[in-house]
Amino acid sequence: MSQNTRTARETVDLMLHTIVHGTRDDLADLYAPDTVITNPFAPDGVPASVTGNEQLRARMKAMGDLIRYHSVDDVTVHETREPGTVVVEFGVSGTIVASGTPFSLRFVNIVRVMDGLIAESRDYSDSVRAAQLFELLAVKVD
């Protein structure tokens, strides 16, 4: 199936699969060149937005050296009346590479897909748990 024929639901399903079973490049390839990703509740030290596929790709690769995802759990996808827009609830589990410490995070993302690529995503995560994870990583993400 080509990216131009994927529905928003199919694109989000592929994104969730790729988080665990693909590379960071595979994941970045699901986003439009001019994508905008915002995280209104980003913890301190973590940028609240990413603009453009290349900035996203670089950020994903940097995080790939720090954490590994093992599963995506408890997925619920809500289709909306807005064409190309879905709301997805899910959790991710993984480990911190340096220590082997396990972690899990829950998300609610509002995703807008155009031409089979993610054009916009508003990502709402468990901000307390995310802050704890970034504290464990002891890094600042650009």
How would you characterize this protein structure?
- The protein is α+β, with helices and mostly antiparallel strands and 142 residues long.
- It has one domain (3-137): Nuclear Transport Factor 2, Chain: A (Roll).
- 30% of the residues lie in helices and 41% in strands.
- It contains four helices and six strands; from the N terminus they run ααββαββββα.
- It has helices at 8-21, 24-28, 53-64, 127-137; strands spanning 31-38, 49-51, 67-79, 85-96, 102-114, 117-125.
- It is globular and about 40 Å long.
Provide a count of the helices.
Answer: 4
CATH class descriptor name: Alpha Beta
What does the radius of gyration come to? Answer: 14 Å
What fraction strand? 35-45%
Tally of structural domains: 1
Query: Which residue ranges are poorly predicted, with pLDDT under 50 across at least 5 consecutive positions?
Result: none
- First and last CA, distance: 34 Å
Output mean pLDDT. 87
What distinguishing features does this structure have?
142 residues; alpha+beta; six-stranded mixed sheet; Nuclear transport factor 2 family protein; SnoaL-like
